[in-house]
Specification:
By secondary structure, the chain is an alpha/beta fold. Among the domains are: 6-172 and 217-269, Aldolase class I (TIM Barrel), CATH 3.20.20; 352-446, no CATH class; 472-618 and 681-704, Alpha-Beta Barrel (TIM Barrel), CATH 3.20.20. It has 25 helices and 32 strands.
């Protein structure tokens, strides 16, 4: 194989970064103390970053910084403070999830390359174009995709001058990334904030199938699929593991480096992945990649898999063999740790010293000689030194003044080791402006001919007076039997479409044509032909308005000039995301994320003419999965998901965690499996807590079989919500009485 593929490694701390470099990584992704999606990792300090950049670049390794979480309004000043500093480093890319951060980077920091995070759930061509319009130069594709889907999306990315990367080793998520709220709802630790507590890995009460860990997937490993992956054209293969220790990172990265070298040199793959079994794993699966989604992807034993694997090689997983394997693995781990420690202790993230000599005399340029461990260069002022007079911005060129003017050099990959001033006359001056130009020329050379970036002041958003409004009610349905509501209420009616329309496009087209007031609501996930069919529906229907949780549909609406509203699962949490949607994609309005609490919502400033929406009642979707969630719970006659499963399967089940909280698995025809909270979300407080902000409040009346029940009929519930929005006394209490049980924990805790 002639084409080189980037090997992208995790760096959760300094030692892991060093280990990845020593093992042969082409690039590393790492996070700082804030704003990254692995909050549980040790991460690195901003002070360490420049030294890491110098070490990595010296070893032909790039570094990508993870800012891949959603950013709430109060954090915007800290974000700007960070970006102002990062912009003057030699960082090779910024990994982003939040649409507001995309907007800010594109508008104010054009020198920073933007990478789209896996948290954006990128799985169709429209999303590629959406991200391209946002300025992304590469995208991490969804982990659920198969080789054919990766190939098609990589071709689309390359047509738009973007690179693609895919995860090839490490943890699988049971949910599509970015639209998992399980940790957020059950514990207040949002996965979209880097705080996922992994409740999907937890033990639950034994299911009917006798499983205790019904949501626990094996680990991803495409080790033996590298050649086929290379044939898809993908540009980078990514290893998961920023929470893992340095010996894990070294072992996995070195194994993949050897596999790549074998492919490059011999066009063959190694058949031995034994080293990967010596470090933490949950056993391995490549089933998503192969498009063979089956029950063998699950594992009900979350620990000791390395020992079990080794014991089986020694004759069987008996207690005696497992104990023996554990001792052997412990010795092996100790050996690896010592080996890696010897390698990484030679790698330093210390900044490189600068030896600076400044000289000059009257009526001559100021001369600044700079020596680094790698080079020597000289910078001259563009004007001559002159005698001090009463001119402004002037001063004597003493050591303290010159040291202060050059202190920004210490914020790079270098530090001033010595500064010698050889100016014999004490009454010479140079304008501060010229000294700044000299400093910037030095920075330009030290940063590899990269221009110095001036700090950006936080843009002041125009505060629009909130006119007193009467918010309308909108209703979400997904069944023909609820179409009668169109004649019974003046509320907007959104019709939720399934993830797959392939076999029913004409049916849904008829529903919308016969009920022109219906507003199409597109789901978060639309893969392959399902996405193409959704586009076909858009073309044939030409709706007056749509709601979409899928950015690919958003892009197509923008191109076709169809008014569109950003759905709640696009995770909109700040004012700059709203500006992004309005200015870049002509968006009509947006749902604010239900993960936010009152004070976080109240801080958001909406653009002029832009509408805000909020779901005040809905079954709480915890996650959506391409895997079958019934396999480990109630079982299924099929071991593997086939073409008929998506279209025909319609059932539900329940699992209960050890805290006795029930979770509902729901599968409707044409949709993926979803996990719902036992109690629905009901928030009547927001209508009075934050008046005059929202144009409409939505209620989700789809037939999701949770434990929440109505004490009156559906139309009665609608009338109760209409009364509440009119401000009728006692309406909130009446709603709570008629909808039980319910929760508004997310609104109380926020993120």
């Amino acid at each position: 194989m002639k084409r080189k593929i980037e090997l992208l490694a995790p760096g959760g701390d300094v030692n892991s970064i060093k280990a990845a470099i020593a093992a042969g990584a082409d690039a590393i992704y790492c996070g700082l103390d804030r704003f990254n999606a692995r909050n549980r990792a040790k991460n690195i300090s901003l002070n360490d970053l420049n030294g890491i950049l110098r070490l990595a670049h010296k070893n032909d390794c790039e570094v990508f910084l993870t800012l891949n979480i959603i950013i709430i309004e109060s954090e915007i000043p800290a974000l700007f403070n960070l970006l102002n500093k990062v912009a003057n480093t030699t960082i090779d890319g910024i990994i982003v999830q939040d649409l507001g951060v995309f907007y800010l980077l594109g508008k104010y920091y054009p020198n920073l390359a933007i990478h789209a995070s896996t948290q954006l759930t990128t799985h169709n061509e429209g999303q590629i174009k959406f991200l391209n319009k946002l300025g992304a130069t590469r995208v991490n594709l969804s982990r659920e995709l198969n080789l054919h889907e990766i190939e098609n999306l990589t071709a689309a990315a390359h047509e738009n001058n973007m690179l693609t990367e895919v995860f090839v080793h490490g943890s699988y998520c049971i949910s599509f990334s970015g639209i998992c709220y399980l940790s957020s709802v059950h514990g207040g630790n949002s996965g979209n904030r880097g705080r996922c507590s992994q409740p999907c890995r937890d033990q639950y009460l034994s299911t009917a199938e006798g499983k205790n860990y019904p949501l626990n997937l094996k680990d991803n490993s495409a080790f033996f699929d590298l050649k086929e992956l290379g044939n898809t054209g993908v540009d980078s293969i990514k290893i998961e593991g920023r929470i893992k220790k340095f010996h894990y990172v070294y072992t996995v990265v070195s194994s993949w480096r050897k596999q790549l070298q074998s492919l490059y040199e011999h066009n063959l793959l190694n058949c031995d992945n034994s080293d990967l079994h010596t470090v933490f794993n949950r056993e391995f699966s490549n089933s998503f990649l192969k498009g063979d989604i089956n029950k063998s992807m699950f594992i009900d034993n979350p620990r000791d898999n390395s020992a079990i694997h080794l014991a089986k090689l020694h004759g069987g997983a008996t207690d005696e063999n497992i104990d023996k394997a554990k001792r052997e693995l412990y010795d092996k781990k100790t050996e690896i740790i010592h080996h890696v420690q010897e390698k990484i202790k030679k790698l330093s993230i210390e900044k490189a010293p600068l030896f600076i000599t400044i000289s000059g005399k009257s009526d001559a340029p100021l001369k600044v000689s700079v020596k680094t461990p790698d080079t020597v260069f000289t910078v001259f002022s563009s004007i001559h030194l002159t005698q001090i007079d009463n001119k402004k911005n002037a001063g004597g060129l003493g050591y303290e003044m010159l040291s202060a003017r050059l202190k920004a050099l210490n914020e790079t990959e270098y530090f001033i080791k010595t500064l010698e001033v050889e100016i014999p006359e004490n009454d010479l001056f140079m304008p501060f402006k010229e000294l700044t130009l000299i400093k910037n020329r030095i920075l330009f050379i030290l940063n590899g001919s990269k221009e110095t970036f001036s700090p950006i002041d936080i843009p002041r958003l125009q505060r629009h007076h909130r006119k007193k409004t009467s918010p309308t009610l909108s209703i979400i349905i997904s069944s023909r039997k609820d179409l009668y509501l169109c004649d019974e209420t003046s509320a907007d009616i959104y019709f939720q479409l399934p993830n797959s329309l392939q076999n029913n496009c004409s049916t849904f087209l008829d529903i919308f044509l016969q009920n022109r007031q219906l507003i199409p609501w597109f789901p978060s996930v639309l893969i392959g032909n399902d996405y193409q069919t959704a586009i076909k529906l858009l073309e044939q229907l030409s709706p007056t308005r749509v709601v979409t949780n899928n950015s690919g549909i958003a892009y197509e609406c923008h191109q076709r000039k169809i008014p569109w509203i950003a759905g709640p699962y696009l995770n909109i949490v700040n004012s700059f995301s709203l500006l992004c949607l309005k200015e870049t994609f002509s968006c009509l309005g947006a749902f604010i994320s239900n993960e936010l609490k009152r004070i976080q919502i109240k801080a958001i400033q909406k653009p002029s003419g832009f509408k805000l929406y909020y779901k005040i009642y809905h079954p709480i979707v915890l996650l959506t999965s391409r895997q079958c969630l019934f396999q480990q719970v109630t079982g299924c006659k099929k071991d593997t998901i086939d073409e008929t499963c998506m279209q025909q399967c319609e059932k539900s089940a329940e699992i209960t965690n050890l805290k006795k909280a029930s979770l509902i698995i729901d599968k409707s025809k044409g949709s993926y499996h979803s996990l719902y909270n036992g109690a629905d979300f009901l928030n009547t407080d927001i209508t009075t807590d934050i008046p005059d902000l929202f144009s409409s409040f939505s209620i989700d009346l789809r037939a999701i079989r949770t434990s929440t029940e109505f004490k009156t009929n559906t139309l009665g519930i609608v009338k109760l919500f209409e009364n509440h929005l009119k401000g009728l006394p006692g309406s909130a209490e009446e709603l709570k009485h008629n909808i039980q049980p319910s929760t508004q924990t997310q609104y109380e805790k926020g993120i």
